[in-house]
Amino acid sequence: MAVVLRKTWTYSENAALNIAVIGECGSGRSSFINAIRGLDDEDENAAVTGVVEISPKPVPYAFPTHPNVTIWKLRLIGGPMFEAGSYLQQVNFSCYDIFIVIVSERFRLSHFALAREIQRMGKKCYFVRSKTDVDLQCAARRRPSSYNEEAILQEIREYCWECLQEEGVKNPEIFLISNRYLARYDFHLLQETLMEELSSEKNHALLLALPSYSNKIIEKKKEVLKEGIWRVAAAACVGALVPIPGVSAACNVAVLVKNTRSYSKNFGLDRDSFSRLSKRSQKSTEELERAIVKTRLAEEINQAFVITLLATVALALAGSFFLWVPVIGMVVNAGLTYKASYRVLDSFLEDAAEDAKNVQKKAWDHEIPAPARVSKKVS
Q1: Cα dihedral angle (133, 138, 141, 146), rounded to 10 degrees?
Q2: SS3 labels along the chain
Q3: How far apart are the first and last CA of the chain?
Q4: Main-chain phi, psi angles of 51, to 5 degrees
């Protein structure tokens, strides 16, 4: 029974998802691939930046914590002989769930042709305008006295939208980002949009794979993980092994240890995630660890820690003399184990989400977020 419950929950978490990234030379494809996976350009398994790749084959890059989610760097587009249909056929179009087109400066005919063909073939296509920070720096130098960041960002969005509409791209979705400053502009909105428009299974897979760069992503992760708590609590009742101190009930603590560690890792509360975040945010791992106030790093969660949580909860629940009646007591004990396990997992999940928010706040407090986005589409 425990195996069935475990398989039911992990099915959606392990759903395969393939994201294709397309762009011209110098558009920032590799930096984007690293950023969305939470990696620094110098990290192990990072996409190589600053080098012109001439490989005709798509290059796969798995997400560090969820290797079933893969982002593919497709070969370069453009050139006088470029033909969208032939290109998509050569890169195995049908293998990908989502297409992201990276544009760093101006749109070209190859961008329009690709978007039209992708839409015609029934797949989603998103446009990412990279190097937004560079655009704003140039604008600030050209017109320092009248510089208005919000107005310039909206001006860029309107320009992009109009260009795509005029070339026959239907309802284009455009996101302005900087691969250097992830807390600014539309990076969070891109993450959220990608999830919202996927099927539920692939949505969950992507959500748990994405770095927890925003409070909204953290809240969505918490919601998804909450859906599986009852299964884990039920599995903890099967083959109960460790007595809960102070009450005549037992629990499969190993199940709870495994899943609380998993929660921490999904929120980026583990040493590998902190190491990657430290490089991107320029904050030391020690600073980031001090932001954890309610839970622990995944590596520090052990049986003793979970038993302490269980004992506190179970003692509050256990107040019935039925615990000492042989037959009825067995039923009550099973119910107590389930309730205690559920409450421990639910409480830990709430605390881990709060700690994840604290860590992100500490990581990016040196960045000033851009004003609230007005609109990504222009009527």
Answers
A1: -80
A2: CHHHHHHHHHHHHCCCEEEEEEECCCCCHHHHHHHHCCCCCCCCCCCCCCCCCCCCCCEEEECCCCCCEEEEECCCCCCCCCCHHHHHHHCCHHHCCEEEEEECCCCCHHHHHHHHHHHHCCCEEEEEECCHHHHHHHHHHHCHHHCCHHHHHHHHHHHHHHHHHHCCCCCCCEEECCCCCCCCCCHHHHHHHHHHCCCHHHHHHHHHHCCCCCHHHHHHHHHHHHCCHHHHHHHHHCCCCEECCCCCCEECHHHHHHHHHHHHHHCCCCHHHHHHHHHHHCCCHHHHHCCCCCCCCHHHCCHHHHHHHHHHHHHHHCCCHHHHCHHHHHHHHHHHHHHHHHHHHHHHHHHHHHHHHHHHHHHHCCCCCCCCCCCCCCC
A3: 54
A4: -125, 135
pLDDT in tens, the chain (379 residues): 445 445 444 545 677 889 999 988 888 889 899 988 888 888 888 888 866 666 678 899 999 888 889 999 998 887 777 888 888 888 888 889 989 999 987 888 889 988 999 999 888 899 999 888 888 888 888 888 888 888 888 888 888 899 899 888 988 899 998 877 777 788 888 888 887 777 677 888 888 888 888 888 899 899 989 988 988 888 877 766 766 666 556 678 888 899 999 999 999 999 998 988 888 888 888 888 888 888 989 999 998 898 888 878 877 776 544 444 443 344 446 677 788 888 889 999 999 999 999 998 888 776 544 444 444 444 4
Q: Are 292 and 358 in contact (CB under 8 A)?
A: yes
Indicate the class that CATH gives domain 14-211: alpha beta
Q: What is the pTM of this model?
A: 0.79
Instruction: Kindly report the backbone phi and psi dihedral angles of residue 19, in degrees, each rounded to the nearest multiple of 5, phi listed first.
Output: -115, 125
Give domain limits for the chain: 14-211, 219-364
- Residue 165 in tokens: 């509409």
Instruction: Give, to the nearest 10 degrees, the angle between helix 132-142 and helix 149-166.
Output: 120
Are the C-beta atoms of residues 31 and 49 closer than 8 Å to each other? yes
